[in-house]
Design a protein that fits this description.
Elements lengths: L4 E3 L2 E3 L11 H5 L2 E9 L2 E2 L2 H14 L7 H13 L6 E9 L15 E8 L7 E5 L19 H12 L4 E5 L5 E4 L3 E6 L2 E4 L10 H10 L2 E2 L12 E6 L3 E8 L2 E2 L6 H16 L5
Parallel strand pairs: 7-8, 7-14, 11-12
Antiparallel strand pairs: 1-2, 1-6, 3-4, 3-5, 5-6, 8-9, 10-11, 10-13, 13-14, 14-15
Helix pairs in contact: 5-6
Bound molecules: pyridoxal-5'-phosphate.
The site of pyridoxal-5'-phosphate has 15 residues, from helix 5 and strand 13.
Length: 277
């Protein structure tokens, strides 16, 4: 079944849905995006994701996206989707068609909503640390921009080495995040995740884990990952996923007791409220 795609307020058959080849999202990665989880036909934490879309756009000096219209697009696409146990919504917002260089155009922005099925992630993750740092001082640090070439390259690097996710350190040599996930480690019995100053994205799942399950924000050297008592990834589509292996080195437990508790509490709280504010 072809679930329609929403482009700038209209629904289209996916085969007919299109944006301009001059769109700056395509030309220079001049846009922002969100991935939202769908559980049994309902979006999860949509308000937080739309808030972050606005913030990412603001950080890129893009016009404010019309998140009410986008939320309507989400509803209309989901209404046509089959009852997948798990799905994902991809929201893309760009500066719209523009000239061939980096100057922005003035023909209006582009907004797209696509929904699709999501296969569950494996029960545990094997991760590969990549040799390229996140730039925590860059203009797009912490922005969910469509300039994800760094992530695409890093994930391919990890997969070529048997990993399921790539992990970045930052310029300071500290632990940062994955290509599509945040990271938590247990060190001396404490649950820690890198601060937003590390250059990581302010993950929606990361924030919910901190609120619901506890843990502290603290920057630690990248090598702390190899010495962790436990570690896990968080993301919209994984929730809390224990890390089994770091660069071929097995961690003591996956899940260890603190990770198992976080998984349990997260699942309980998420089931109680589909749009935690
Ligand atoms: C670079 C990066 N870090 C972290 C995350 C996790 O964020 P969230 O929990 O909001 O999905 C993502 C999400 O895709 C991401 O792209």
């Amino acid at each position: 079944m072809n679930v329609p795609v929403w482009v700038n307020g209209e629904l289209y058959d996916p085969a007919q849905a299109s944006v301009s080849v001059f769109d700056h999202g395509l030309m220079v990665g001049d846009g922002v995006f969100e991935t939202v989880k769908v559980v049994a036909g309902h979006s999860f934490a949509l308000t937080r994701h739309l808030d972050r879309l606005k913030l990412s756009a603001q950080r890129m000096d893009l016009p404010e996206p019309d998140v009410e219209a986008i939320a309507d697009g989400v509803r209309r696409c989901l209404a046509e989707a089959p009852g997948w146990p798990l799905g994902r919504i991809r929201i893309t917002y760009t500066s719209g068609p523009g000239p061939l260089g980096s100057d922005r155009g003035d023909q209006g922005t582009t907004s797209v909503v696509i929904v699709g099925e999501q296969k569950p992630f494996p029960l545990t993750a094997d991760v590969t640390v990549v040799p390229w740092p996140r730039n925590e001082r860059g203009a797009l640090s912490g922005v969910k921009s469509t300039s994800y070439g760094d992530n695409a390259k890093a994930l391919a690097y990890a997969k070529a080495r048997g990993g399921g996710e790539a992990i970045f350190g930052n310029l300071a040599g500290d632990l940062c995040e994955g290509t599509g996930s945040n990271i938590f480690i247990v060190r001396d019995g404490r649950l820690l995740t890198p601060t937003l100053a590390s250059g990581c994205l302010a993950g929606v799942t990361r924030a919910l884990v901190l609120e619901w399950c506890g843990g502290d924000e603290a920057d630690v050297p990248l090598r702390a990952l190899y010495e962790a008592e436990e570690a896990f990834l968080t993301s919209t589509t994984r929730d809390v996923q224990p890390i089994r292996l770091v660069d071929g080195q097995v961690l003591p437990a996956a899940p260890g007791p603190i990770t198992a508790k976080a998984m349990e509490v997260f699942a309980e709280r998420a089931a109680l409220d589909a749009d935690p504010r």
